Write the structure tokens for this entry.
Amino acid sequence: MSNRKSTTKKVMAEATAGNFFKFLGTAGARFVVARQLRASGGVYLELLNNKIILDPGPGALVRLTHSRPAIDPTKIQAIFLSHKHIDHSNDVNILIDAMTAGGLKKRGVLFAPLECLEGQDAVVFNYLKGYLEKIEILEGEKEYHLGELKIKTSPAHQHEAETYGLKFYLPETTIGFLVDTKFFPELIKAYRDVEILVLNVVRATAKDSDYIMHLSVEEASLILSEIKPRQAYLTHFGMTMLQADPRKVAARLTEETGIEVLAAYDGLTVKLD
């Protein structure tokens, strides 16, 4: 290998050393996912030496291997599913297979609501469950551990499936993932201890008597104004958000709330150290 290539690899590795998370995709809503106007791979996290993927939607495996630097799916130690919908769970089975070497290595932990594991609409294949070292059933407002990493769930979100947001506690900060939900006031209390908040904001505007159980920009503004995190990231965009331009929406929310709000994009890496 030439010195130039060796130096480039070293710089890329150093760029993602320590605690960080990376948006493998920022697509929400069916049309954005189906047309892949944004990728739909979920979020990859490295926290306290744990390699984690959250909500591995369609294309997660490809997004991992095509990342720069590439992320080895066989090294993943934990998978979190916030709920069973296909844009959040599509690649869970292939990733279980990858991280367990097709069942040759009994390893890894799956964290998921019971609805993802049992019943007619279960999204995890039965034959793969035995490959895992452990399965943790997610329930509302409970504490979990992954080595030294503490994780807490939110109360059940108001969504079409059993859904929980997640908070990851590091020594210096707390990261919250406020996933798919209709707005309800208890969200503010549930995420008040978060310093970095990632919000799934599918819609640019909400309508009266709306049956769509996803957050709008106006609701995100209210949540941010009340919680006052140090920093926030918008993701999981639907068509109206793309039309509104997430960067402009984030800039407006920054001005309205006084909080640094950023629009995530596919491949964005957020360093936490």
